[in-house]
Amino acid sequence: MVLVEPLRVLNSRSRFYGLQSCVSRCPGTLVVTKGCVITAKASNSPHGVEVRRRGGDNVHSGRVSRRDLGLFGISLPLLAGFASNLEAEAASRSVRLKDVEYPKLQEALRAAVAGDLEKAETMFSELIEEDPKSASVWSNRGSVRVSLQKYEQAAEDFTKAIALAPDAPVPFLNRAISYEAMGRFDDAIADCKTAIINDPEEYAAWFNLGNVEVRVRDYDAALNAYSRASRLAPGIAGYRLKEALVLFELNRLEECRKLVQGLVRKYPNYAEAHAVLAAVLWKEGNRDLAEGQFSEATVREPRYKDIRWVGNELQWPPGLMTAMGKFLNITY
């Protein structure tokens, strides 16, 4: 497992990634709101883990533990016998294990995860001044800058990290997000593909590739990317939902419906899945069933009644947005 950075930005449209509910309702798949798009991802688990923060809530307090750092993307050996292999891998990736225990890095990580992004950016900048050859620090500052919507500066930070750790996938997949935000879709696709070459099992790279392919409306390619991501990380419900969205765009409605029906059975509190299923059922002419599913969605998230919110927050592809808009016009 690559040891490049503790924090991974998976996508600013993070609600595609997981559930609209709290962790107890679906372990391993949470949602980052727009105010906090930095994601903690387990490197030793098939499940993605995101940190949800609203208002003044504190996500983490106190010292960032070795377990936390494992969740943030750094694999830590549970047995002493693994230490030599870990050190060898770190050396090959231009990453120092001393970064893991460095108190200032710990504080910067706490600030980032808690949503204090300006403080985190300042601290990572200070760390870069102290040691400009740390790929992890460059990459983490880039992640914070993505959250601050400083996309050009973030891309520059990821480029620095790539120069220091060219075989690591994470800076490539994160730079792809910066490029996507700037409308540089070809560059974003190229970076995702490089991340996949560096680590074919890096499911976040496949997921981000699917996101960009949707932006350029290459739905067949997007479906392939999302399918690979969901096979690599079967515990992440949001990856399966993204497959369903693309199936809808390809007019493969029965496959889409069956997939989403499976999700709502397994995760009954998954508001977005209920909303998607409502649109699919309406498209198929099952209005009563559609209204029932939409009621399930709005009980958990009333803003699904606002098509503008759906478009801005979830960024569904156009076919699904059209179906939901027509459904809302008739129902409300």
From TrEMBL:
Stored Pfam families: TPR_16
InterPro entries to which the protein is assigned, alphabetical: TPR-like_helical_dom_sf, TPR_rpt, Ycf3
Alphabetized UniProt keyword annotations: Repeat, TPR repeat
Superkingdom as given in the UniProt entry: Eukaryota
TPR repeats mapped onto the chain: 135-168, 203-236
Protein name (Swiss-Prot/TrEMBL): Uncharacterized protein
Native source organism of the sequence: Physcomitrium patens
Name of the gene this protein is made from: LOC112293384
